[in-house]
Write a structure and sequence with these properties.
Radius of gyration: 23 Å
Distance between the termini: 63 Å
Structural class: alpha+beta
Largest sheet: 2 strands, antiparallel
Shape: elongated
Number of helices: 3
Bound molecules: zinc ion
Number of domains: 2
Order of helices and strands: EEHHEEEEH
Strand content: 15-25%
Low-confidence stretches: none
Number of strands: 6
Helix content: 40-55%
Length: 111
């Protein structure tokens, strides 16, 4: 196999783009970024619970938003919202998640 120069240090390597040392450093950096993205956003538990809540809602009510300071209405743009906000100690359990359409969700958060 042809050797290529490492993208970082230019040393010839059999790896596709980086020498062993810089490949390892790059991988560490990727893992770190992926980890911090999860911490910054919502965690895996939230993703799982939110998907389940949404699926349940669609199965039971169909494409209908329960409404926030508005009557229930049909919506294809449903999102999952925390009943007790995380900023006030709410958690990501299914009991604390509810379904709202995007419009109702932003009305709730902009009040
Ligand atoms: Zn290198
Ligand atoms: Zn709505």
């Amino acid at each position: 196999m042809r050797r290529r120069p490492c993208l970082v240090c230019g040393r010839l390597t059999r790896n596709p783009s980086r020498c062993d040392q810089h490949q390892a450093e790059w991988q560490t950096e990727q893992d770190r970024r992926r980890g911090s993205a999860t911490q910054r956003g919502y965690g895996a538990a939230y993703q799982r619970n939110a998907a389940a809540v949404l699926a349940d809602h669609r199965r039971t009510h169909g494409a209908v938003c329960p409404g926030y300071s508005a009557p229930a209405h049909p919506s294809t743009d449903l999102t999952v919202d925390h009943i007790l906000p995380k900023s006030r100690g709410g958690d990501d359990e299914r009991e604390n998640l509810t379904v709202l359409c995007r419009a109702c969700n932003s009305r709730k958060h902009n009040r």
